Amino acid sequence: MRQHSGIGVLDKAVAVLYAVAEQPCGLNELCERTGLPRATAHRLAVGLETHRLLARNGDGAWRPGPALGELAAGAADPLLEAASSILPRLREITGESVQLYCRDGSQRVCVAALEPPAGLRDTVPIGSRLPLTAGSAAKVLVAWADPELQRSMLTEAVYNERTLADVRKRGWAQSAGERAAGVASISAPVRDQQGAVVAAISVSGPIDRMGRRPGARWAADLVAAADALHRRL
């Protein structure tokens, strides 16, 4: 769950930005996602559009605007800076798609991704918001999350509490056909300087290539990449 600043109009504007980032939408759906009154949602969306933080699709739906990318380009994120040197090497070793996920409330967000130059691949665009109920990265992020979040996820997840315990014990997670049919993945936790898990680094690709137990092949390389990220942080 996102934090509240105590500044009502700011929190509402941020809620609008997140709602549109999830998927372009019109006013009715924006109201449903944010819980804001119609007039308030419209006023905030139009204001954000004026500042180019939102823009419109051809059908009139709001989508993230160009100013967001311009602002992001000037932000220095140590995690992304570290990933820019680690992910290419991991892609080279595995020949598969690689991603970096961070948790945002009850979702995970792809903050970095690289795809192999050719062949069938698992494409996860940067900015994609995926559930924490399935997939190897979800298991990693939930395994080291607070107990309250774990309990809320386990009510709908394809994995169980024993699975999370196994993930914590061996230091990585794997999945086959959980998030998307025909896709396998393996993920490991990325820790900050204090040892807290701040992200999950993943390798994903077709089950036909990676197998239903990709950990047997790529666990060592993935954990080494996660350790390299930790050292750079």
Q: What's the CATH topology label of the largest domain?
A: Beta-Lactamase
CATH class assignment of the largest domain: Alpha Beta
Give the helices and strands as they follow along the chain.
Answer: HHHEEHHEEEHHHEEEHH
| Helical residues, percent | 40-55%
Provide the β-strand percentage band: 15-25%
Number of strands: 8
Rg, rounded, reads: 19 Å
What is the CATH architecture descriptor of the largest domain?
A: 2-Layer Sandwich
**Cα distance, first to last residue?**
25 Å
Q: Outline the biggest β-sheet.
A: 6 strands, antiparallel
Q: Label the overall shape.
A: globular
Q: Into how many domains do the coordinates divide?
A: 2
Describe the strand arrangement of the main beta sheet, using strand numbers. 5-4-3-8-7-6
State the low-pLDDT regions, or none. none
- How many helices? 10
The secondary structure category is alpha+beta
Please state the average pLDDT score.
Answer: 91
Specify the CATH homologous superfamily of the largest domain: GAF domain
Description:
This protein is an alpha+beta fold. It has two domains: 8-72, Orthogonal Bundle (Arc Repressor Mutant, subunit A); 78-232, Beta-Lactamase (2-Layer Sandwich). The chain is built from ten helices and eight strands. The protein has helices at residues 8-22, 27-34, 38-50, 66-73, 78-94, 136-143, 147-154, 161-170, 207-210, 215-232, and strands at residues 54-56, 62-64, 97-104, 107-114, 129-131, 173-176, 183-191, 197-206. The chain has a six-stranded antiparallel beta sheet with strand order 5-4-3-8-7-6, sandwiched between helices. The protein has a two-stranded antiparallel sheet with strand order 1-2. The chain is globular, with a radius of gyration of 19 Å. The relative contact order is 0.11.
